[in-house]
Amino acid sequence: MKTKIIMLALLCTACAEKPLTNQETQNLLSQYTWGYTAPNSDTPIKLTFKDNQLSAYASCNSMGGAYKIIEQKMLAPIIFGDAQACAPHIMQQEHFIRMFFLQPVPFKISSRSSQNPKLIFQKDQQEYIFVGTKRSHENAHGE
């Protein structure tokens, strides 16, 4: 009986996804546009990653900056690319995403093998789930 339990435990650990290296994570991030729609909002925040740069867009201003991954945490001070006035609810979304990455945020990527993987951030004892949409070859070089 002991042998069966040990074998079962070994099989379960063999099936678990191994953590990605930083390079593997960056490659995976760059293949998708990651969308999050906050509760009480119908405007998604979209994130794209390319060449160590994070771009964020909530339907008004373009924002972005360099990002770093340190021990499964993401740090990305986001600055405005342009700064036009927007509807108040959009400005609230933009403020949210700019403040979101000021401190390193723990994250994980789940369902790597599915069509729509999830980029899950843990912040303030809450999960923020960004759903990935595969980028085509044409828009993979900038949206």
From TrEMBL:
Query: What protein name is recorded for this chain?
Result: META domain-containing protein
Q: Which InterPro entries match?
A: DUF306_Meta_HslJ, HslJ-like_sf
Q: Which domain of life is it from?
A: Bacteria
Every DUF306 domain range? 36-112
Q: What Pfam families does this protein's entry cite?
A: META
Source organism of the structure? Acinetobacter wuhouensis
